[in-house]
Amino acid sequence: MSTLRAFFIGVASVLLLGASAPAGQIYSVDAAASSLSAKVPFLGLGRKSAGFPDVAGTIRLSRERPENIELDVTIDATALTAGDNLTLSRLKGERFFWVDEHPTVRFVGREMKMTSPTQGSVDGDLTARGVTRPVTLDVSFDKPPAEAAPNDIITLTGTTRINRYDFGMKSYRLIVGKYVNIELRARMVPQLQVS
In this predicted model, what pLDDT tens digit does every residue of 17-55 receive, in sequence order? Predict the structure, then answer.
């Protein structure tokens, strides 16, 4: 009797775990082939750019229900690059990213709305300089995620615009623009197929 009861408990556990586990393909972000860039108006005439070459993270994407995306990308702010040393020093300093206190930038996406087979938007939260704000990332894929085979590598490009003041970066208002255009390029490599 105890063996039979244990069997049924085991079956029930498997069914419950299977029902609660999110479905989809898990991808890792290929750090060597992924990056993030940021551009901000400067002196009203041109733009200043910064690069974030060290990007890592995971993406869970379901072919059947792409709206249930789970995107978690972390950017190493200490590795950021800029066009000159003065700009680099200021960006890493306390008035901007303050990398000594906040060495990472993170985007966590939880819901995707597809507007075409390869384009859509991801709603999530961006954390920079210790501040978290809701952000919508406009995304495009190099191939339709709903048609991707389990071993297909997919490239995702995401763009958004943020108000830097929302993240405590309020210095140099007269020479540096308020809004920052961000572009993320992530090469998604499949890791684990789950039901």
Answer: 333 334 689 999 999 999 999 999 988 778 899 999 999
d(CA 174, CA 183): 24
pLDDT in tens, 46-88: 889 999 999 999 999 988 888 899 999 999 999 999 999 999 9
- Find, among 129, 123, 127, 20, the residue nearest to 67 by Cα: 123
State the architecture of 24-193 in CATH terms.
Beta Barrel (2.40)
CA 64 to chain centre: 21
- Distances in Å between the alpha carbon of 106 and those of 58, 82, 130, 177? 12, 20, 10, 22
- As a whole number of angstroms, the distance between CA 70 and CA 109 comes to 6
Distance CA(35)–CA(41), nearest Å, equals 21
Q: Whole-prediction pTM value?
A: 0.82
Cα 190 to Cα 25, 100, 137, 150, 153, distances in angstroms: 7, 33, 21, 7, 6
The one-letter amino acid at 175: I
| Extents of the domains making up the chain | 24-193
For 65, other C-beta atoms within 10 Å of its C-beta total 13
Which three-class secondary structure state does DSSP give residue 91?
A: helix
